[in-house]
Write a structure and sequence with these properties.
It is a single chain. This protein has four domains: about 5-210, Aminohydrolase, N-terminal nucleophile (Ntn) domain (Glutamine Phosphoribosylpyrophosphate, subunit 1, domain 1, 4-Layer Sandwich); about 225-315 and about 330-365 and about 470-545, Rossmann fold; about 380-435 and about 450-470, no CATH class; about 555-620, no CATH class. Strand 2 and strand 3 form a beta hairpin. Helix 9 (about 335-350) crosses helix 19 (about 470-495) and helix 25 (about 565-575) crosses helix 28 (about 605-620). It contains 28 helices and 17 strands. The chain has a six-stranded antiparallel beta sheet. Residues about 625-630 have low confidence and may be disordered. The longest helix has 29 residues, at about 470-495. The protein has about 625 residues and is an alpha+beta fold.
Length: about 625
């Protein structure tokens, strides 16, 4: 793995070098990284680099460490051409950042495009700036006390500095159970904070503050017609995909291809941009209900792509699991990380260096099934209250329960009457189960009344949007995308030796999506209506019509049918060290396994997987290796 780090030891500069060395060590556990550090008195910056885009820079005014793709830099050199020297675009990135900072100060981060993270030390003003891109494609965490400020790509780098104690955050554990991941700005450690998407940290010797510099905005309708918006969307995505292919030779750039609308659009636009043939990579399973290879093949044939496929097995899952758990710096239980890793590995094995991914399309343009489902229940609230409360609900309460239609109507009305955001998350684990049944009393008390809906509710309220759908999209951009899908794709790709770019997350595409009215994202009950209109002449009709599936995985079935995975789950979750953590009631774990054995759906199996990954993460990154082994 790789990353950036910085240390500011305000009272004891002798601590800078050892703290920096510990952090660099934690960022270099694969052994293939190139490391570099720069120290300026009581401040040190460092990088553990796998890619040319990860650089350290020093001049009389600043120290900079950054991780930024160079594919959209050319327009920015107009602001600071005097700093440009001979060399590759990647090697020039820190000098570009220095020039932009010289001209714009902290506002320079607003000029950067694509995924980036940077840490800048102003040697004259003695201030430290840290920032990440608007979607958290790149990530940074930080720790501060009265004498020390630490910033790094990963939490374990902060711990290895020697300044950060491992104090686990009960709220983060609850978030992992509910969302399969921790939710920013909190992290798995109580005293460590993660920068939110589109924010920057600015620290002086006496004060540190975090502020946003960019965010999604919705409802900025300019009167454009549906046809004009459709044409603008097509041309904007076309340009973004072409830009994201820059700087990489054709054989070395490829694309994830799930067979869905987003990845198929990326492949089609790569072909249009002259990447011929497109190297497309797809994952399948022997369990046919999880396969989208049929649609991936259709897309590949449509664009003449060189299509590479691989069937992931339970054995693959078992053997890769320890490394995957280690690759994440927090518990991460989204099982689609498994096919993501093997898809990236397939690309690496075939000589590809950079993959384009279609992540973000659903959250920007209304492609998830839950938006349609939410609207189905929202229809009931458009019925006049007098009719709902005075006729429909009394009639249902008096009707015989054994009539099938009546029972379905009662369930519908019950769910429709749940407040909108609560209903939206009602199928999530801690929204559907009592916390008192799951957690030990002391652990529950340590949560101090925390609700897993606190962060989603805050996002919902603060969204710059008038429409309910746009507010839901904003919540999903922050949590489903920023906290879940992006770290999944970036971490698993890096584990396989692949760099990833996200053309739908270019600011030009994102800001255009904010101008698309909610009624054109979900028109009637048709998901991503405008997107499909924009690309109906590009995509195969079978892909346009197909139901969304995504990178799903039959992990629930594997936990039953594969002996090694089955025994791993039972042995791990009923081990003494797991039960003695004091998190979960043993009775709940036993009941979970009973329900899982009796249930044919994936719900309880996916829940078992979440508990398993959580415990394996503790063993690798929290417990002392000499005491506990996986």
């Amino acid at each position: 793995m790789s990353g950036l780090c910085a240390v500011w030891e305000k009272t004891d500069r002798s601590r800078v070098a050892p703290s920096l060395a510990g952090m660099i060590g934690a960022l270099s556990f694969s052994g293939s990284e190139r490391t570099q550090t720069e120290i300026d008195g009581d401040v040190g910056l460092g990088v553990s680099a796998l890619w040319g885009r990860q650089q350290v820079y020093r001049d009389p005014e600043v120290l900079i460490v950054c991780d930024a793709d160079p594919y959209q830099q050319e327009d920015l050199w107009m602001y600071c051409a005097h700093r440009r020297t001979a060399g590759s675009a990647a090697n020039q990135t820190p000098a570009l950042v220095a020039g932009l900072y010289e001209r714009f100060g902290c506002d320079c981060v607003e000029k950067l495009r694509g995924g980036f993270s940077l840490i800048l030390w102003d040697r004259r003003k003695r201030t430290l700036l840290a920032a990440i891109d608007g979607f958290a494609i790149n990530r940074l965490v930080y720790y501060e006390d009265t004498t020390t400020l630490l910033v790094a790509t990963r939490i374990d780098a902060l711990v290895r500095s020697g300044d950060v104690a491992v104090e686990l955050n009960p709220r983060a554990i609850a978030n992992v159970l509910n969302f399969t991941t921790s939710i920013a700005p909190e992290t798995a450690l109580l005293n460590v904070t993660r920068l939110l998407p589109g924010t920057l940290l600015l620290a002086s010797g006496t004060h540190t503050h975090v502020k946003p510099y960019w965010d999604m905005r919705y409802g900025l309708v300019d009167g454009a017609s549906e046809a004009r918006l459709s044409q603008e969307l097509e041309s904007t995505v076309e340009k973004s995909v072409a830009d994201h292919c820059k700087g990489v030779s054709s054989p070395a750039v490829g694309a994830f291809l799930s067979g869905g609308t987003d990845s198929s659009t990326v492949v089609g636009m790569m072909d249009r941009a002259g990447v011929k043939p497109v190297n497309a990579f797809s994952i399948g399973f022997n369990e046919q209900q999880f396969n989208e290879l049929e649609y991936a093949v259709i897309t590949a044939e449509k664009f003449g792509a060189k299509h590479h496929t691989y069937l992931v097995s339970p054995q693959d899952c078992f053997e890769a699991l320890p490394g995957m758990v280690r690759a994440f710096d927090e518990p991460f239980a989204n099982s689609s990380a498994i096919p993501t890793y093997f898809c990236a590995k397939l690309a690496a094995d075939n000589g590809t260096k950079v993959l384009l991914a279609g992540d973000g399309g659903d959250e920007l343009f209304g492609g998830n099934q839950r938006y349609q489902t939410d609207k189905v229940f929202g229809v009931y609230q458009t019925v006049p209250r007098l009719l709902r409360k005075g006729l429909i609900e009394p009639a249902l309460s008096l009707s015989p329960a054994d009539i099938g239609f009546v029972e379905k109507a009662r369930k519908y009305v019950h769910r429709a009457n749940i407040p909108a955001l609560e209903r939206y998350f009602s199928y999530h684990f801690l929204c559907a189960h009592s916390a008192a049944d799951i957690f030990e009393p002391d652990f529950l008390a340590a949560m101090n009344g925390y609700s897993v809906l606190e962060v989603p509710a805050r996002y919902y309220r603060q969204a710059s949007a008038a429409e309910h759908l746009d507010r839901l999209l904003y919540v999903d951009v922050k949590i489903s995308l920023g906290d879940n899908d992006l770290p999944k794709v970036t971490c698993m790709s890096e584990m396989a030796g692949i760099q990833v770019r996200f053309p739908f997350l270019d600011r030009s595409v994102a800001e255009l999506s904010g101008r698309v009215p909610a009624r054109l994202k979900l028109k009637g009950f048709e998901k991503r209506y405008l997107f499909k209109r924009a690309f109906r002449n590009l995509l195969p009709p079978e892909v346009i019509r197909k139901k969304k599936q995504g990178f799903g995985i039959p992990v629930s079935r594997w936990l039953k049918t594969d002996f090694r995975l089955r025994e791993l789950a039972r042995d791990t979750l009923f081990s003494r060290c797991a039960l003695e953590r004091g998190y979960f009631r043993r009775q709940f774990i036993e009941d979970l396994f009973r329900k899982y054995e009796a249930d044919q759906s994936s719900y309880y199996g996916d829940t078992v997987w979440t508990f398993l990954v959580l415990e394996l993460w503790h063993r690798q990154l929290v417990d002392e290796p000499a005491k506990v082994t996986v």
